Amino acid sequence: MSDKPNKLIEKGKRLDGRKVDELRPIKMEVGVLKRADGSCYMELGGNKAIAAVYGPRAVHPRHLQEATQVIIRYRYDMASFSVKERKRPGPDRRSIEISKVSREALAPVILKEYFPRSVIDIFVEILQADAGTRTVGINASSVALADAGIPMRGIVSSCAVGKVDGEIVLDLTGQEDNYGEADMPIAMTQDGKITLLQMDGHLTKEEFAQAIELAKKGCKQIYEVQRSALISKYEGVSNV
Ligand code: ADP
């Protein structure tokens, strides 16, 4: 049985009341895990995720070491209870792909040459999913890396844009992703360098340009949330 609504956008408003250029409500908390070197919890609408960073630490097995730079490993995992129908636990093609592209989205900002022969492990657990989970994982990981004190050129921010009922929209829900015309997750650095761009569906050249501009706007807003989450953790911490 399909839960396809007749319209996903009516009079400029989406089914959850947002305008086309609005993000879902965001919550972010830094340093939520005692045993990780850095961690971050993030909510984006119906998505809930946690990122944990360990390292830089020794690489095992040693033959995986790289002599001139740190290795970055990223594991994205969706909990079996995170979706409506129970998801089979463990890695699958989708999670392996998301882990790969998320690692590549973050790697360009990490000063890898600072920690030769070492590894940084990033673990992302999706506790509740409602589309855009890879973007939530990247946003939370970026903050968890900063929380772990990993030297970086900047913070990576990520959001999805897409096309729904013929309009370019920011931050698609599960329903919009399922019944919309296009979904395009993007990640970028603070200065607008794109480190992830994927696309499902179809966009014209003009729509694509419009979508990139909207993603820039979304990422800027997310960056502000990331920044204030980090500041609020370290507020009041004396540097003497
Ligand atoms: P993203 O979560 O990054 O948007 P996808 O586009 O692959 O990645 O997935 C969109 C949404 O579809 C997910 O956020 C989740 O709500 C749902 N989904 C993905 N995989 C499964 C699954 N195995 N079972 C049920 N729902 C799933």
Short characterization:
By secondary structure, the protein is an alpha+beta fold.
Q: Can you offer a commentary on this structure?
A:
There is one protein chain. The protein is an alpha+beta fold. The chain has one domain (9-238): GHMP Kinase, N-terminal domain (Ribosomal Protein S5, domain 2, 2-Layer Sandwich), CATH 3.30.230.70. It contains four helices and twelve strands; from the N terminus they run ββββββαβαββαβββα. It has a five-stranded mixed β-sheet with strand order 3-4-5-7-6. Strands 8, 9, 10, 11 and 12 form a five-stranded antiparallel β-sheet that branches. Strands 1-2 form a two-stranded antiparallel ribbon. Helix 2 runs parallel beside helix 4. It starts with 8 loop residues before the first strand and ends in a 6-residue tail after the last helix. The structure holds adenosine-5'-diphosphate (ADP). Adenosine-5'-diphosphate is lined by residues 83, 85, 87, 94, 129-134, 174, 177, 185.
Q: Can you say what the CATH homologous superfamily is?
A: GHMP Kinase, N-terminal domain
Percent of residues in beta strands? 25-35%
The first-level CATH class name: Alpha Beta
What order do the helices and strands follow?
Answer: EEEEEEHEHEEHEEEH
- Tally of separate domains: 1
The CATH topology name reads: Ribosomal Protein S5, domain 2
Widest sheet: strand ordering: 3-4-5-7-6
Terminus-to-terminus distance: 62 Å
Question: Level of helix content?
Answer: 25-40%
The structure class reads alpha+beta
List keywords for this structure.
240 residues, alpha+beta, Ribosomal Protein S5, domain 2, five-stranded mixed sheet, five-stranded antiparallel sheet, 4 helices, 12 strands, 27% helix, binds adenosine-5'-diphosphate
